[in-house]
From TrEMBL, chain A:
Component of the PeBoW complex, which is required for maturation of 28S and 5.8S ribosomal RNAs and formation of the 60S ribosome. It is found in: Nucleus, Nucleolus; Nucleus, Nucleoplasm. Keywords: Nucleus, Repeat, Ribosome biogenesis, rRNA processing, WD repeat. HAMAP family: WDR12. The lineage of its organism: Eukaryota, Metazoa, Chordata, Craniata, Vertebrata. Belongs to the WD repeat WDR12/YTM1 family. Residues 202-224 are annotated as: Disordered. Component of the PeBoW complex, composed of BOP1, PES1 and WDR12. Within the PeBoW complex BOP1 interacts directly with PES1 and WDR12. The PeBoW complex also associates with the 66S pre-ribosome. Pfam families: NLE (PF08154), WD40 (PF00400). This is Ribosome biogenesis protein WDR12. GO terms for molecular function: ribonucleoprotein complex binding.
TrEMBL record, chain B:
Its main location: nucleus. Belongs to the WD repeat BOP1/ERB1 family. GO terms for molecular function: ribonucleoprotein complex binding. GO terms for cellular component: nucleoplasm; PeBoW complex; preribosome, large subunit precursor. It is found in: Nucleus, Nucleolus; Nucleus, Nucleoplasm. CDD domains: WD40 (cd00200). This is Ribosome biogenesis protein BOP1. The gene is BOP1. HAMAP family: BOP1. Component of the PeBoW complex, composed of BOP1, PES1 and WDR12. Within the PeBoW complex BOP1 interacts directly with PES1 and WDR12. The PeBoW complex also associates with the 66S pre-ribosome. Component of the PeBoW complex, composed of BOP1, PES1 and WDR12. The complex is held together by BOP1, which interacts with PES1 via its N-terminal domain and with WDR12 via a high-affinity interaction between the seven-bladed beta-propeller domains of the 2 proteins. The NOP7 complex associates with the 66S pre-ribosome. The PeBoW complex associates with DDX27, BOP1 interacts directly with DDX27. Residues 32-265 form the BOP1 N-terminal domain. PROSITE patterns: WD_REPEATS_1, WD_REPEATS_2, WD_REPEATS_REGION.
Length: 402, 610
């Protein structure tokens, strides 16, 4: 049996081993390497408990035996192989299931609460444990997207503060900026509009006046009318997804097969990335500076919003069997993202292992329409079977992994 | 090796030439393989083989080391190696060169014999120059083409390109000595035969009947016949008919590969479920966000395209035969036809302003001064009907099978198929609430109608042909005949110059209106009757749905220059619908902006292929 020279390293200081080459049997699999690391750590520190590790060779996850992986990647077996090891994440465990009355179109999680929008024209707020806290009525039609602005001490009643009018078509997507002062919306009328999210003093006073003429009271139920700060036009078809890259740039994806980056201050178009299929959703990760897009083909694609090139797909993740309707980057891990699709499956990816997802979660019985993460290690997914599922997803140890 | 010369003793007297080394004679030496001796010498003693035979190693060493190896010969008869002497080696060399073996022999020497003086005289003459020596022969080129200078028309050429004479006709019934009566000519025929010129006659003889073979006279025409045949054989010029050697693959037009013709729908992405009976008709909104469908379960459903969600369901009074969404994006109206009614609905989807403007349009109607009698009663919907979305109801005298809008969205046409009447097609104007019957005469059962997308033409498809009418001039412009049994559906290319018809005999005919009134191409891709055909508004695609449950999408590129014919390439067969009650796909329509196709089927589903 042939042996390979390997050197192990990790970014997590807690699990570092000596930086010396080891001679490992070539046919070792992930479990064998994991037990090697565990033994080394036990030798160093008697109180070390067993941890499952995952291994990366040159940025690619090791899924087969070491020898076959190196042969597939054409890595020379003569030199010392550098292997990075990270804590392995366990499969997401379904925790809660929140039943809605109708399809769930969108979900966004806060540190304590989950906000969902549904096809029954309401938005609901839930606690992280799955208890319904509040229902937000007011829309006269299907709620397509929800976003948190600010969460203050909630009164028992929630009143609509503002009704932002201006779009000439169904508003399909909204996003708040990182400083929570503005939000942007995209619609079927091909436009993006930026609105202020700040409640002004006068509005609060006005709401308390009881004896207003009847006509104004009717609109008061929907909040006071607000007009957009800015309108961004340039897309040729419906805007399906919008997000803020940082405080100043807005990125939008549309049915005209393009992703556009706009300057939120001036309203100018900065970059256009062209794809070949309708985009369903976008997600941006500030940790790795990449955009992930889900399209009406079965792929999740990664883009670099800073690239000057017109259409440079960095990576294509293929595993779904239907349109990818929702993608979201993990807030704490720069390589992980979750995607939901019309084939009822939610998939968890690590972009370093681009051939297959880490985990497939088939909890839904119908199309998955939205996914999100919470900061505390929960995954959320909502779909056309009226259910919102939460899953616990952490590293093997209780503290967050590499 | 030098063969030993052996002269066998004849009569026992000869001793000369007898081989003194081995007396066994000319026998295969292998006979002595197993024996220790190899023969007998003159005295009768056994000649023993050398004690140690040379094996390969010895041979090899010999080859390397022995300086005389090259002149050592192994003699089989004595099984010993003989070293050749120098004269012998010389002899061998001379023989190899082809010279005489005897070194002392001079072949050029003139012997003194009877021809000696003559020869010496000749030599003297040559020396004097009186007799010239024979010139060396001109060397003809070694290889030359025997037939290079052939005249193809020469007699020999005809032998090469032999054209066989045509065969003589075998005798038939007419030449029989007792033909059946129908082969005998009647009096008139005989007179006619006699009057004709001999060259014009079909038969060069008169068929005759004899009761028995004995009664048959001599054949009078024998010499004549042979003469004619000989003329045919040697006098008739014959020409070889050059058959064109065509490679059949060259005849097939080179079509581009479907991969190069992307984008087109390839897979089924969404299924819209909700109807409970077959869905006869679908139509997409001009923005592409919604889809409306009408079914035999008496409901009209509105769907959101990208999720498959049924947003609204409306019950109507009968099985819905046709739906059509108004193509004007500033108006939100859907026309639905069921039984004898055409209903105009406002689905209230989308921008509230547009919805409001549509309602305004409906209510801002002013009745004209004189109320003309119309074939159709227009009624404004009120009360609960209005809340459901109904706006206008047009009550027709007969069952309506299809409604179709004009491109601008104001005119609407409805079809009431009836073989006997001339009131089959009506054109309505929504803003003026006016109905007209454009036709006076009945030309056949009308299957479907369509407006021209750009020009004021109106297409009416009956069972076997499509008639094109000019609405302004009020006359028939063209009549296209599709050679198929019963046209079922029709679609006009957005450019306006091409038309496709699907028929119940599984054929799709593409008409190029500028080219001819006959189909430019007939496509027979489906196995069963076609039910619906459609063009895409922007992409060069068209689709057809049939009872075999499949939708076939083809690339149909129409060129702007009038010289190039449209390029038609079938690109994809989309399957997914289930055949229910022998019916498959009932209607197809494309998405207005994306390269997607919707199809509705008898299995109560609508499918989106992208």
């Amino acid at each position: 049996m042939s042996q390979l020279q390997t050197r192990f390293f990790t970014e997590n200081k807690k699990y570092s081993v000596d930086d010396v080459p080891f001679s490992i049997p070539a046919a070792s699999e992930v479990q064998d390497l994991s037990s090697v690391i565990n033994k080394l750590l036990e030798a160093k520190n008697g109180s070390h408990s067993q941890v499952e590790f995952d291994f990366l060779v040159r940025g690619q996850f090791l899924r087969t035996s070491l020898a076959s992986h190196m042969e597939a990647e054409s890595i020379s077996t003569e030199d010392v192989v550098e292997i990075e090891y990270v804590e392995r994440f366990t499969a997401p465990q379904p925790e809660e299931c929140m039943m809605h009355d109708d399809w769930i179109s969108s979900v966004e999680a806060d540190s304590e609460w989950i906000l969902t929008g549904s096809y029954d024209k309401t938005a609901r707020i839930w606690s992280l444990e799955g208890k319904a806290v509040m229902t937000v009525a007011g829309h006269t039609d299907v709620v397509k997207d929800v976003a948190w602005v600010k969460r203050e001490n909630l009164l028992n009643k929630l009143k609509a503060r503002h009704c932002c009018r201006g779009h000439a078509g169904s508003v399909d997507t909204i996003a708040t900026n990182p400083t929570r002062t503005k939000f942007c919306s995209g619609s079927w009328d091909k436009m993006l509009k930026i609105w202020s999210a700040v409640a002004t003093e006068e509005d609060e006073e006005l709401e308390e006046q009881p004896n207003r003429p009847r006509k104004k009271q009717k609109t008061e139920q929907l909040g006071l009318t607000r007009t957009p700060l800015m309108t961004l036009s340039g897309h040729n078809e419906a805007v399906s997804s919008v997000l803020w890259l940082d405080g100043e740039e807005v990125c939008s994806a549309s049915w005209d097969h393009t992703i556009r980056v706009w300057d939120a201050e001036t309203g100018e178009l900065k970059t256009t990335l062209t794809g070949s299929k309708v985009f369903n959703q976008l997600s941006y990760s500030p940790l790795c500076q990449r955009l992930a897009s889900g399209s009406t083909d079965r792929h999740v694609r990664l883009w670099d919003p800073r690239s000057k090139d017109g259409s440079l797909v960095l990576l294509s993740l293929t595993s779904h069997n239907g349109w990818v309707t929702a993608v979201k980057w993990a807030p704490s891990h720069e390589h992980q993202l979750v995607s939901g699709s019309l084939d009822n499956v939610v998939k968890l990816w690590d972009v370093r292992s681009c051939k297959a997802p880490l985990y497939d979660v088939s909890a839904h019985e119908d199309k998955v329409l939205c996914v999100d993460w919470t900061d505390s290690g929960l995954l959320l997914s909502g779909g056309a079977d009226n259910k919102l599922y939460t899953y616990r997803y952490t590293a093997c140890e209780s503290d967050a992994g590499a | 090796p030098i063969q030993s010369v052996c002269v066998l003793s004849v009569g026992g007297a000869w001793r000369l030439g007898t081989d003194v080394r081995n007396t066994v004679g000319n026998i295969p030496m292998e006979w002595y393989q197993d024996y220790p001796h190899i023969g007998y010498d003159l005295d009768g003693k056994k000649i023993f083989k050398p004690i140690r035979n040379k094996d390969e190693l010895d041979e090899f060493l010999d080859k390397m080391e022995n300086p005389d190896y090259w002149r050592t010969v192994h003699d089989k008869t004595t099984a010993s190696d003989i070293r050749l002497s120098d004269e012998q080696v010389d002899l061998v060399h001379r023989l190899q060169k082809g010279q005489f073996g005897d070194a002392s022999f001079n072949e050029y020497e003139i012997h003194s014999c009877s021809s000696g003086p003559i020869v010496s005289k000749m030599v003297h003459a040559i020396k004097m120059g009186w007799i010239k020596p024979r010139k060396p022969k001109e060397t003809t080129p070694q290889y030359y083409d025997l037939w290079a200078k052939e005249d193809p028309n020469a007699i020999l050429g005809r032998h090469k390109m032999h054209v066989p004479a045509p065969k003589m006709r075998l005798p038939g019934h007419e030449e029989s000595y007792n033909p059946p009566p129908e082969y005998l000519l009647t009096e008139e025929e005989r007179l006619a035969w006699e009057q004709q010129d001999p060259e014009d006659r079909k038969l060069p003889f008169l068929p005759q009947k004899h009761s028995c073979l004995r009664a048959v006279p001599a054949f009078s025409r024998f010499i004549h016949e042979r003469f004619e045949r000989c003329l045919d054989l040697y006098l008739c010029p014959r020409q070889r008919k050059m058959r064109v050697n065509v490679n059949p693959e060259d005849l097939i037009p080179k079509l581009p590969k479907p991969k190069d013709l992307q984008p087109f729908p390839t897979t089924m992405s969404l299924v819209y479920r909700g109807h409970t009976s077959l869905v006869r008709s679908i139509s997409a909104s001009p923005t592409g966000q919604w889809l409306v469908s009408g079914s035999d379960d008496c409901t009209v459903r509105f769907w959101e395209v990208n999720t498959g969600r049924c947003l609204k369901t409306l019950e109507v009074g009968g099985a819905v035969k046709g739906v059509a969404w108004n193509p004007n994006p500033a108006v939100c109206l859907v026309a639905v036809c069921f039984e004898s009614t055409v209903l105009l609905l406002n689905p209230a989807l989308g921008d509230r302003l547009v919805v409001g403007a549509t309602d305004q349009l409906i209510t801002s109607y002013e009745p004209p001064e004189e109320d003309k009698e119309q074939a159709v009663t227009w009624a404004l919907s009120e009360g609960p009907e209005h809340d459901k979305g109904h706006r206008l109801t047009l009550t027709h005298p007969k069952g309506v099978k299809q409604v179709v809008w004009h491109g601008k969205g104001d005119y609407l046409s409805s079809v009431m198929p009836d073989n006997t009447s001339n009131l089959q097609v009506l054109i309505h104007q929504v803003s003026k609430r006016r109905t007209q019957n454009p036709f006076r005469k009945n030309k056949g059962l009308v299957q479907c109608v369509s407006f021209h997308p750009l020009r004021p033409y109106f297409f009416v498809a009956t069972q076997r042909c499509v008639r094109v009418y000019n609405l302004i001039k009020q006359e028939l412009t063209k009549k296209l005949t599709a050679n198929c049994k019963w046209i079922s559906s029709m679609a006009i290319h957005p450019g306006g110059d091409n038309l496709i018809c699907g028929s119940y005999d599984c054929r799709l005919a593409w008409f190029d209106l500028d080219l001819s009134t006959k189909p430019y191409k007939m496509l027979r891709h489906h196995k069963k009757a076609l039910r619906g055909v459609a063009y895409h508004k922007h992409y060069p695609l068209f689709a057809s749905g049939a009872d075999d449950g499949s939708v076939i999408v083809c690339h149909g590129m129409v060129y702007n220059d009038l010289l190039q014919n449209p390029l038609i390439v079938p690109v994809k067969v989309l399957r997914g619908h289930q055949i229910t009650h022998d019916l498959g796909v009932l209607d197809v329509t494309f998405h207005p902006t994306q390269p997607w196709v919707f199809s509705s089927g008898a299995d109560a589903t609508i499918r989106l292929f992208t």
